[in-house]
Design brief:
By secondary structure, the chain is mainly beta. 0% of the residues lie in helices and 53% in strands. The chain has strands at residues 3-13, 33-47, 52-55, 66-70, 76-85, 90-95, 115-122, 126-146, 149-159, 172-174.
Length: 177
């Protein structure tokens, strides 16, 4: 109940009758606009009273788009505010919905070899997917990004639980929940 799918709503150009396949968009004749919604990530509720949901910043990086949260029952809830922290690849989403919160654990108590569970919208298609694994390493650092921006993210938890586009931003929980 505390894990939600993050969905993006964007207005995208429709190809016109004069569009030629293989040409970059800026060389194509403008067509109609179409609003498109698709699942792109996962988040989890951390404050029921305030309607706060945690996800990764890269999940909600498009500042021009609007975002929706989809709960376990398939109900859509609009995101009203987004607070982004690029240094930690963290975003806090705010919604009017009052969904049950998932309690946060003390990350200092995590041990390598501990069994963990990742929950999310695998590949942006399969909501509420559960994968299991172990904590493979602690205090890891990576350079993440694409295109023209690269960010250094440190002090990460490494796991062998399947993490892929779509379940990024979801919770990693121990076997006690």
């Amino acid at each position: 109940q505390s894990v939600v799918t993050v969905s993006i709503k964007q207005t995208l150009p429709q190809p016109s009758a004069f569009t030629l396949p293989g040409l970059p968009f800026f060389f194509q004749a403008p067509g109609d606009q179409e609003e498109v919604q698709r699942d792109i990530g996962t988040g989890f509720v951390v404050s029921q009273e305030d309607g706060l949901v945690v996800t990764n910043k890269h999940v909600v990086s498009d500042v021009e788009a609007s975002y929706m949260l989809i709960d376990n029952d398939g109900q859509e809830h609009a995101v009203t505010n987004i607070y982004r922290d690029p240094v930690n690849d963290l975003a806090i989403l705010q919604t009017e919905a009052r969904l049950p919160a998932l309690p946060l654990a003390d990350s200092d108590e995590i041990k390598v070899g501990q069994t963990v569970i990742a929950i999310g919208t695998a590949l942006g298609e399969f909501r509420q997917t559960l994968t299991t694994g172990v904590v493979s390493g602690l205090g890891r650092g990576i350079e993440a990004g694409g295109g023209f921006s690269v960010e250094r993210i440190d002090n990460l938890i490494q796991t062998d639980a399947a993490i892929n586009p779509g379940n990024s931003g979801g919770p990693l929980i121990n076997i006690k929940g």
